[in-house]
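User: Predict the structure for this protein chain, please.
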Amino acid sequence: MVPLTVTFDMPGQIVTGLANGSLVRTGGVVQDTSGKVVMWLREFSEMGVMNGISSGILPFTAATSMLNLGISAVGFTVILKRLKDLEKQLEKVQESLEKIENKIDLSFYANFRAALDLAINSFTMKNLHNRRSSALCAINRFLEAEYTYADLADKELAIKSRIAGEYILALCLAYVAEARCYLELNEFDTAIKRFKEGKHEINIRIERYVDSLLTSKPLMYLHPKLKGRTDLSRLTRIYQWKNSVQSENNNSLLTENSVFELLRTNMVPQRDMSWTSQVNEWIDSLPACVIEQKNVKRDIFGIKQEGREETIQSLPVTFLKMESMIETSQRFNAYQIQTKTISKLQISFNDWINLQPPTNKNEDKSLMYIIPEIPLSL
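Assistant: Here is the predicted structure, written as structure tokens:
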């Protein structure tokens, strides 16, 4: 087994590596350019993420991701809490959708909650046979949830609705819950397989969602009135993620310049149009996941100036949705890497969960770093 250092202090060389690009963070895993793991991150609370943000290790959007940095921190109780949060979000949307033609079926969440309760009870059983049998029953229910949420997400993605993101996140939770059962049973190979399959199913849907949020004119996110709230470097990171998903390669060659060149062709309309007409046409084309058309202020002449201003000013919030969803994708992808790590280190999942620094945790230390003695090849 490769010796591990567990600490609450971030090594200086890793801080430097993340800053100069020689190291890359994917969710809760830090790797070098060859893909070898040099560090894992694990938060003990939401404050751990905030500490990571303030130290520059994590981006601001890390606080908005539905998933934790480490798979060890995503127990069934945590998943249940996240599921309830999603349910509350959909209930809020339900209030407005009931006034029109759409209605959300929330009964699927009750079935998922029941499966989580079953999983929680399973791993409190002392009889190993009963424990395994009950866990397999929970796994079957999580599989049903995966099919359900994949179907729901696809339907909402097809119409670019405002609730597509919630169904994608629920799909993430279903896969994590299933894989967590296998981890608790120390069935690492099966957990790795399910994370790999889940990664494909989730990423293709997140990419479709991000494409919808980018709109027909992604350069609108760089509107002069949004200076200081959005920028080209952040937009570039979104395209780098898209490129990595399509090529299944973490090392994207896209730069800020190449992204700008990619988008430049959309700067000038194909036909002679005034700037106002261009913006109006763009707003008219926006899907519900960006803005509900009924919320755009219009008069008998069309979109009012106030409507244009409010739409543009709402874009930073949509931008954060994209970044948050990408962070969630990367954290899910990192769970597979972490599971491979546990398997390669030949330790039990319980031992991995219980890794602690040799000193007592200080109150202001809520982000933990696990560092192998040498970079670990997976």
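Strands lie at 4-7, 23-26, 29-32, 37-43, 298-299, 302-303, 367-372.
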